[in-house]
Each structure stands twice: as C-alpha cells, then as structure tokens.
C-alpha cells in the first residue's frame, strides 16, 4: 500500500487545490477587484506553507535513505525559492 509520507503529501496537495478552487469561486461571487485581490493575497500565504510542509513530510519520509549533504542542498534550494518569491 502507500507510505504514510505519500498519503500526507497527497492530502496536503488536495487541501491546497481545494482552497484554490474555493478562492476562485469566492472571487467570482464577490465580483469586485479589491476584494478579489484580498482573497488572492490570502492564497499567497497558503502556497509557501503548503510547499514547505509537503517538502518536509517528503524529506522525513526518506530521511533514512538520503545523506546529510543532499538534505542540506535541498534546504538551500527551498530557501532560495522562498527568498525569490518574497522579494
């Protein structure tokens, strides 16, 4: 069957996708640019949180099969992504 890490990662991605769809429907419902931007800004917070959490679950799931140096490079890469998105 599936590993626990896979189930956790998939569940988070399903949650994230559901939030995206819900936000799109809410944007259509409010039908105002200002409110739509507020809703969209809320999604900007959810995306990186889901990315970090999903990656963490994946790394923990394979922590016994990955070297410390590779783990460090992955963390550096994630940090670069977050810095690039922030600025």
From TrEMBL:
<protein>
    <submittedName>
        <fullName>DUF2619 domain-containing protein</fullName>
    </submittedName>
</protein>
<keyword id="KW-1133">Transmembrane helix</keyword>
<keyword id="KW-0472">Membrane</keyword>
<dbReference type="InterPro" id="IPR020390">
    <property type="entry name" value="Uncharacterised_YqhV"/>
</dbReference>
<keyword id="KW-0812">Transmembrane</keyword>
<feature type="transmembrane region" description="Helical">
    <location>
        <begin position="37"/>
        <end position="60"/>
    </location>
</feature>
<dbReference type="Pfam" id="PF10942">
    <property type="entry name" value="DUF2619"/>
</dbReference>
<feature type="transmembrane region" description="Helical">
    <location>
        <begin position="66"/>
        <end position="85"/>
    </location>
</feature>
<feature type="transmembrane region" description="Helical">
    <location>
        <begin position="6"/>
        <end position="28"/>
    </location>
</feature>
